[in-house]
Amino acid sequence: MPASTRKSAYLTGLTQGTPFLLIIVPFALLFGVVATEAGLALPEVMGFSVVVVAGAAQFSAVQLMAENAHAAVIILTALAVNMRMAMYSASLTPYLGPAPLWQRALVAYSLFDQTYAVAHARYEARPEMGVAERIAFYAGAATPLLPTWYGMTLVGALVGRSIPPEFALDFALPITFLAMVAPALRTPAHVAAAGSSVALALVFAGLPYNLGLMIAAVAGMAVGAEIERRMGAR
Amino acid sequence: MDWSIAETWAIIVALGIGTFLLRFSFLGAMGGRQLPDWLLRHLRYTPVAVLPALVAPAVAWPEATGGDPDPARLAAAFVTVAVGWWRKSVIAAICAGAATLYAMLFLLG
């Protein structure tokens, strides 16, 4: 793999990752604000963003901490929210499996919704990419996102209590996730997977420990896969 | 919130390790081996199955309104999905969703 190819893959990754700053910036700000308002001190707020690096799980954990839930419940719930990361990991394995272990570990550390979405779309569209090129692309996509995640959490924690509730920041998370999913609804199988998953999530919303989310997600994946199999095409 | 600094850090570190292990699971253990077709077929639907389920309850019963369905938030969610699907753009979807939310909140006062 010539260095110039890796460099251009890195730059392409940078180009394709950068637009996601529009999601990362408000999302990280929001976490800083929410965590501070829940009563966490600055080092702990930053600890969440640097050590965990998973927005939705961070929000769930802080929410449950504010409710004084049992520590085991907090950890299990946040990890349940992150179960999808194992699926992302499996989904990238065919593309990145042969890369050196330290590179796969760094990919794993920075594997969240946005980096996954960018990388998976690129790898699927360009099956001819080499492994080193894929890693370079991934590094490019993560470069603007990760430091911004840390930095904007800090800004959010510092401005914290000065944002009035009229800004309805509670809804930044749903809008972000829905916006990430909608463009992916390319086939009837994708639409059916999302639709059945939403219906089940609402039906089972009352179950404890995010079990409703787990049931809905697994069932949605099964629906999508089954429809794809019956239609005999992607 | 009644958490000591040590308890808070214990939760952060446990979550960090657990999350890393979830992310590293297949990438770390599988190496260059190929996953079976049926599994890959399911994994293709991971994002569209997990993310909407994650937010569906928050859209239907937002905490900000005490759990009552809210026309502004429902409209914002609908517009976000519609614009995202139509324009195939995450950014356009977020902007349209946020604009709808603020417009509706303003109109419904």
UniProtKB/TrEMBL annotation, chain A:
The chain crosses the membrane at residues 20-40, 46-64, 71-90, 135-160, 167-185, 197-225. It comes from the Bacteria. It holds the Pfam family AzlC. InterPro entries: Brnchd-chn_aa_trnsp_permease. Its main location: membrane. GO terms for biological process: L-valine transmembrane transport. It is a multi-pass membrane protein. Keywords: Cell membrane, Membrane, Transmembrane, Transmembrane helix, Transport. Belongs to the AzlC family. This is AzlC family ABC transporter permease.
From TrEMBL, chain B:
The chain crosses the membrane at residues 6-30, 90-108. The keyword Membrane applies. It comes from the Bacteria. Keywords: Membrane, Transmembrane, Transmembrane helix. This is AzlD domain-containing protein. It comes from Rhodovulum sulfidophilum.
